[in-house]
Amino acid sequence: MTEAAPRTETVGVSPGRVNLIGEHTDYNEGYVLPIALGERARVTISPRTTGGGDGITVSSVQLDETVEVEDPTPGEHAWWGYVAGVVWALRERGHQIGPVTAVLDSEVPVGGGLSSSAAIESATVLALDAHEGLGLSPEEMAEVAQAAENDFLGVPTGPMDQRASLWCRTDHALLLDCRDLSTTHIPFALPESLTLALVNTRSPHVLADGHYAQRRDACAAAARTLGVRALRDIGPDDLPDALARLDDDEQVRRVRHVVTENARVLEAVEALRAEDWPTLGRVLTASHASMRDDYEITVPTVDLAVETALAHGALGSRMTGGGFGGTVIALMPTDRVDELTTALEAAYVERGFTTPGVSTSRASAGGIELSR
After folding, report:
1. Which of 72, 168, 179, 366 has the fewest Cβ atoms surrounding its Cβ within 10 A?
2. Which one of 54, 64, 129, 161 is the catalytic residue?
3. For residue 8, what is the DSSP state?
4. Does 161 qualify as catalytic in the annotation?
């Protein structure tokens, strides 16, 4: 009997994402509207040739580091946990994942609010699904990648990031209903006269530092007080009465942000469908003000980037991601992007901040589209 040839290496590729609008609405069962980026994570899986048992070997091209993980255990926050966590999550679901070697090569900036972690997790699950012949559905892939983030790494993010990295389509934004996880692909192709600029404020955020969990807990407490399953159940017309029933000033601000942000997501969708770019810009800017004043998750570097973008022609601008640093997006006239770059450099020097980086992006393919 001829033995089967050993499995060769398998590559999974998945992008980072930028959330156009809908911040901190996902774990409140609301709406989000992300796009996938051109920057991607690549994870190459091959049979493990070192160590024993069912351990894994994880290498990072960027860090030039290799780690042997003999028994992936929840609670690990090291860089390799994004890969090991997916292996762990698959095994928890009963999949027999053998000893493998994983090589990580990622272009997605770390700590920039562009979901570098979800890109890695999604690329890993795509590679393992193909390598092990698991036949996972798109939803199962997203659940496994999210379980790695939530249950292995202990970061209580909602359902958006991994689904955006996996499910987004080229030239579309993904409207995700975080209650039932239904999706609608909304056309998003800017005219040549407009560009989506991304400002890396060089102030990395860290979701595991407690700020994220504190805000999530405040929302859950407010929902209990208001007698609803989640803040998604409070509509704009219900907001005045809901706020009057809350005694905690912090909860008042958090609820106001979530309810109005959900409404802004739906307004942004209608603006995209109508190609009404001024309205989209206005909604983006209103979102930033709400994050700054009610959710209190912005920092001076991102506020300065938004203010500078608006002063130099942006139709709208906002911070994107979990907060406390990261990336700012700006809907800019294409012929003023260079002007914005120069103005940001001058403004940051004047304030003593590290010079930011400016790039541009379009709505790109998610991991599942890339793997076809």
Report:
1. 179
2. 161
3. -
4. yes
